[in-house]
Amino acid sequence: MNAMRILTIASLILVTMLADRGQAKDKPKDKPKSVYANRTGDNKAKALKAFGGTEQSEEAVKAGLIWLLKQQMPDGRWKFDGNFPDKGPGSKDIGATGMALLPILAAGYTHKTPRKGEAAVYGIAVQAGLNYILRNQDKRTGHLSSDSYQHGLAAQALCEAYGITKDPALKNQAQASVAYIVTSQHMQGGWRYAPKQEGDLSVSGWYIMALIAAQRAGLVVPVQTMAGATNFVDSCCDMKTEGYAYLGSDNPSPTCTAIGLLCRQHLNGWKADKARLRTAIKNQTKNWALTDRKVADCYQHYYVTQVLFHAGGADWKDWNESMRDRLVKSQADAKDAKGPGSWFDKTDKFGRDGGRLMQTSLNVLMLQSYYRHVPLHGKMPEE
Q1: Tell me: the pLDDT tens digits for 21-63?
Q2: Would you give the DSSP letter of residue 296?
Q3: 317 near 52, Cβ under 8 Å?
Q4: Burial of residue 299, with CB atoms counted within 10 A of its CB: 0-12 exposed, 13-18 middle, 19 or more buried
């Protein structure tokens, strides 16, 4: 057994031991009672109204979820290149499954959802999707896929499912997926395509959000891992513009800036009144503006939506009205043979690469922003 394998196994054992002991130093501070509290019941209705959702946007969510449900394979997986038009890349089923599970979980459905009525169908779908992911987890390393994007997506879904339900059957494997992220971190704090490879902000963004989901679930994420991630995000920031770049701090882009700011909000606790956050948002207003864009960009918009939702205020109101109405209008309707309830825009570069499943999953998540998480900028509606 080589040294790397010994180190990996030792790390997995250490992380699991710390989880069982409940080490306070590795738990997130100021943790809300439940960051998932707005996903169901009266809270959901209040959050939908308070944060800018409409009956039309929620109908679009429901139609999108129905389309996603229809794409699940008999063995529980989803596929980017499934049996629908406008396919994405093949052989990325772990990532596709994680991506499809996230909006279903955001709608308030889990594998523990009571098997009654319409909800039962979604509960069964979540269970089957989780089972597919868990069957494919490497028992030695904890990785869900050797592809970093796929691991990040699936790990986030797995940690969310555990966080919402606290199902002990998920705990160890969710913790192992976190351990893989921890042990594959580069010395400068980021992640890329292979373990220990110098990081880029795109892959790191998915991994950081998976770690945030793990923290919220009460799983162990070592302090040094998050400190390293913070240092990496720092290294991608152009201090003159408060923009963020894919590699290093040169040539910041609107997409990477959205990723970087979301990471800042979670890693650094940047609130709405943070001067650097306000400066960054102000500098990106024209770059992000939907009304001036000639092409779609669901990957960028997914991150921008989260940043502005947590920032709140006029920036969120303006963005949300444009984003929400644009998505409701562009969704395939019941007469569209390519898939009622789905989205596909051929002008969307990254969305085109990810196909109809990616565009639909991310667009539904954007329309679930109102209740997917409790916003970082203030209290829940009922408070």
Answers
A1: 443 334 444 444 589 999 999 999 999 999 999 999 999 999 9
A2: -
A3: yes
A4: buried
